[in-house]
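Students often ask why we bother encoding 3D structure as a string. The short answer is that it lets us treat folding as translation between two languages. Here is a chain of 230 residues written in the first language.
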Amino acid sequence: MINKAMILAAGFGKRIHPLTLKNPKPLLKIGKETLLYNTLKFLELYGIKEVVINVHYLKDQIIEYINKNQFDLSIKIVEEKDKILGTGGGVLNAIQNFSNLPFLVINPDTIWSSKYLPELKLMEKIFLENTKNKCLLLVVNKKKSFDLTIKGDFNLKNGLISRKINSQHIYTGLQIIKPEVFSKINEKVFSINKIWDKLISNNELHAFESNIDFMHVSNLDIYKRLLEKI
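And here it is in the second language, the structure alphabet:
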């Protein structure tokens, strides 16, 4: 069973300016709670026991928030002190916390809800049943996105991911991944796309398609519209 997760919370949130000039994006509120609280509660509901959160931009606010709020989780903060390491570099920097076991990586800017729990349970089952699986993404058809301006990231066929023109699927911000995929990376600062592209070239990047309407804080206008909706 997967019981560890990493929340990516180091980013600058530039597409949400001016709101993120003084507040980190994970601490923006949706309804009464922050995006970070929502994500932590989702992981707690799923049964995750240990969470690593990487921080960089306005990191003191996130650290203070974690210290002030109680969660039924063991939470470790990993600071990216000198410079932001990117989505891939951030995970690699924290990789020693996952003991060579598969773990979740999750973005807090998606509106995670209990509706996702059955999908994640099935994802985990699929991932663990095949020992050859290295990375499994949760994707959704872009027609189900609240933000209809988002271009597709991937195409999906028979559970395998590819990158082509007119991509129809969006990455939701949740994946199950094995630490071994980072073993031959010598860079410190890089995007998780570097890992994905290598797996795609070997026909090793798999995905599970979500049927849930995708709500994601992609920019300031969408954030304002989400506040009206929720």
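Translate back mentally: The radius of gyration is 17 Å. Keep this in mind for the problem set.
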